[in-house]
């Protein structure tokens, strides 16, 4: 891999994708690093110079190729699917980028990896207990994740895309169970794609923050670039542990294990 070949970072919301892209940015300070190119609210924020979306402002093709549909439609794309407008949009970004970071490609991973077969794609998974807790704290803690119509539509689209989707309305009794079932789909799709595409590497957020030197060496070997530790700090490293018994009960109920790597 040459330094000019962009690195793609993919993972669901609050999984550690921003931290990972920040590591890449410190190792490749020159050039453009695109943040969340499929975000539905980009047009509202890209005029702010202190905002991560500002690099999109001067892209001439942006207004012609970007649409909010990327955020909520066809959320499951396999390597056999087509979306020409999205493909052209990402081609334009890829040609200009040092890195591209996504949180809306967890169930489009096969499509993304086949679109850029020469790219190195880093996929991040996180313990669903910690991830749910982090998302919940990031949003209004009083509101369930599935009480947000925007997120509910996205989650249902993921489930609907499967050949035999679990019915989250009947199999899950609450917000936590819905998220855990959704997380399991992401993990299964990641593992499916790992078997098909040699340009994908999966890491766990917990490993990144607990043994950063080891994981950064693995990533450096994978992308062909020396990645430096900028001082990684865990997000909500222990806060969810106050609810460990509750979360573990849910994990055992749904998966017969409390170890997410065995789900």
3D structure, described in words:
With 263 residues, the protein is of the alpha/beta class. The chain has a single domain (7-262), classed as Rossmann fold, CATH 3.40.50. 46% of the residues lie in helices and 10% in strands. It contains 13 helices and 5 strands. The chain has helices spanning 17-27, 42-45, 62-65, 69-72, 84-94, 109-115, 128-138, 149-160, 168-171, 175-196, 205-210, 212-223, 244-255, and strands at 7-11, 32-35, 97-102, 120-125, 200-204. It has a 5-stranded parallel sheet with strand order 2-3-1-4-5, sandwiched between helices. Helix 10 crosses helix 13. It is globular and about 50 Å long. The protein starts with 6 loop residues before the first strand and ends in an 8-residue tail after the last helix.
Major sheet: arrangement of strands: 2-3-1-4-5
Question: Mean pLDDT score, rounded?
Answer: 85
CATH topology: Rossmann fold
- Outline the biggest β-sheet: 5 strands, parallel
Q: Give me the number of helical elements.
A: 13
Which architecture does the CATH hierarchy give at level 2? 3-Layer(aba) Sandwich
Considering DSSP H and I runs of 4 or more, what fraction of the residues is helical? 40-55%
Report the radius of gyration as a whole number of Å. Answer: 18 Å
Tally the beta strands.
5
Q: Report how far apart the termini are.
A: 33 Å
Structural class: alpha/beta
């Amino acid at each position: 891999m040459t330094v000019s070949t962009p690195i793609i970072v993919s993972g669901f919301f609050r999984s550690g994708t921003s931290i990972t892209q920040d590591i890449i940015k410190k190792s490749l300070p020159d050039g453009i690093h695109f943040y969340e190119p499929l975000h539905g609210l980009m047009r509202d924020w890209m005029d702010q110079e202190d905002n991560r979306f500002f690099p999109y402002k001067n892209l001439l093709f942006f207004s012609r190729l970007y649409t909010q549909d990327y955020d909520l439609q066809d959320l499951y794309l396999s390597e056999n699917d087509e979306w020409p407008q999205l493909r052209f949009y990402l081609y334009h970004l890829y040609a200009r980028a040092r890195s591209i970071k996504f949180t809306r490609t967890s169930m489009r991973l096969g499509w993304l990896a086949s679109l850029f077969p020469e790219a190195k794609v880093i996929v991040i998974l996180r313990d669903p207990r910690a991830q749910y807790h982090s998302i919940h704290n990031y949003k209004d803690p009083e509101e369930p994740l599935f009480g947000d119509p925007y997120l509910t539509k996205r989650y249902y689209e993921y489930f609907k895309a499967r050949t035999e989707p679990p019915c989250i309305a009947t199999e899950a009794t609450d917000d936590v169970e819905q998220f855990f079932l959704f997380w399991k789909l992401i993990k299964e799709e990641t593992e499916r794609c790992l078997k098909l595409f040699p340009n994908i590497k999966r890491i766990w957020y917990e490993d990144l923050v607990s043994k950063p030197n080891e994981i950064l060496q693995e990533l450096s070997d994978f992308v062909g670039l020396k990645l430096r530790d900028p001082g990684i700090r865990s997000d909500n490293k222990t806060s969810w542990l106050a609810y460990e018994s509750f979360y573990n009960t849910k994990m055992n109920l749904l998966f017969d294990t409390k170890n997410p790597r065995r789900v």
